[in-house]
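Recall the central idea of this unit: under ordinary conditions, the amino acid sequence of a chain determines the structure it adopts. In this exercise we apply that idea directly, starting from the sequence alone.
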Amino acid sequence: MGGVTRAASSPVPAAPEFSASFEQGRPSSSVLGLAPVIPVVVLDDAADAVPLARALVAGGLPAIEVTLRTPAALDAIRSVAAEVPEAVIGAGTLLTPGQVEAALTAGSRFLVSPGWSPRLLGAMKDSGVPFLPGVSTASEVVTLLDEGITEMKFFPAEAAGGTAYLRSLAAPLPQARFCPTGGIGLASAPSYLALPNVGCVGGTWMLPAEALAAKDWDRVRRLAQEAAALAV
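Accordingly, the structure predicted from this sequence is:
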């Protein structure tokens, strides 16, 4: 129950390629296009990070957001960056410029925040890696567009208006693209992914607590495959 099985003839997938450079404040490549779903991972034990990441990658979800909500998060990012090169590891729940620096030092290849302040936004823009600042209102979207930022996290998605709200933003703000996160599951994800201004969704449903507690990485892999199949 603890390992991910893979046929001997099946090659390990290579990590998706994107440049970490910026042009006029915009990421030169998009986190939103790596997979239809970005798993949002909360880890209490950094030792679980590598087998979990391998399970997610084997299931077709290479972009992995580890949230900085636990003391184990930075060690988890560091381990995945060093041992799972086929994963694109990122840091989430960033709240301060100091956390941005710590996440980059640990090996994060993209950054995600639930919201933003001018100082936090400045640190993410200066980071040299793609990032998704969190928004939940049209005014926040307009402000970020004025900063030259077109890709954002929409959070908390379900509580902030869900697909109806995002659909209403598409016509007046067609430049903005989103990764909705918060309250989204396997049943609701397709309705988000069908929207023209949604590039991917974030979620935790492929990471059930009981599977993580049991270190049932094969179940995580199967749930990741189910999520990856949502690509439209």
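The longest strand covers residues 37-41.
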